[in-house]
Write a structure and sequence with these properties.
Blueprint: H1 8-14, H2 21-35, H3 42-49, H4 53-60, H5 63-76, H6 80-88, H7 92-106, H8 117-120, H9 130-156, H10 166-185, H11 190-202
Helix pairs in contact: 2-3, 2-5, 6-7, 7-10, 7-11, 9-10, 10-11
Domain HTH tetR-type: 18-78
Keywords: DNA-binding, Transcription, Transcription regulation
DNA-binding region: 41-60
Amino acid sequence: MTRTPPDQTTAKRGRPRAFDRDAALAKATQLFWQRGYEATSIGELTRAMGINPPSLYAAFGDKKALFLEVVSTYGETYGAFTRQALDEEPRAYDGMARLLREAAVSFTDPTHPRGCLVICAATNVTEQSSDVEADLRALRAGNIAEFERRFRAAVEAGETAPDADPHAMANFYAAVFQGMSQRARDGGTTDELRAVAEMAIAAWPKP
């Protein structure tokens, strides 16, 4: 008796598609960045990522775990310019100048949501999400501490005025950086943010 071979088209249609974890994570990044942690629902995430809720939980854990992975990935991709500017420039002044100038471009780039995800994605959250807000606050505090460390070294190396206050400088430039992110979210143009960056650069306490 001759067996009829299975319909290959039907078999292919019934086979589940391979799950592209990186592509799904990229979709989640865009959604969290645009809408924020609190306003982004599991349903919106699964639709954007092209998976069902069980697959999301299996691959990433819960919503918070997914968001924290998004934040980590963001720091290695879209937000990497901040670390690179400070690490690659030999002088603190040049590093901060580069950071602010690149922020003006990155924060207004039309290919992704505006501003900085770490700054804008977890504001005005409910009490249930306060730990997420605290996590991002800790990241921002760590950045300010790194600014201060570099500025302190700059004072000791004679790159700034001898009476410059590294703590005040770190808070000032952090406030400028964070303000540029919000200004971009509010519709500020690249040129407007560049002007802000140049004013902040000019405020550097030169020796």
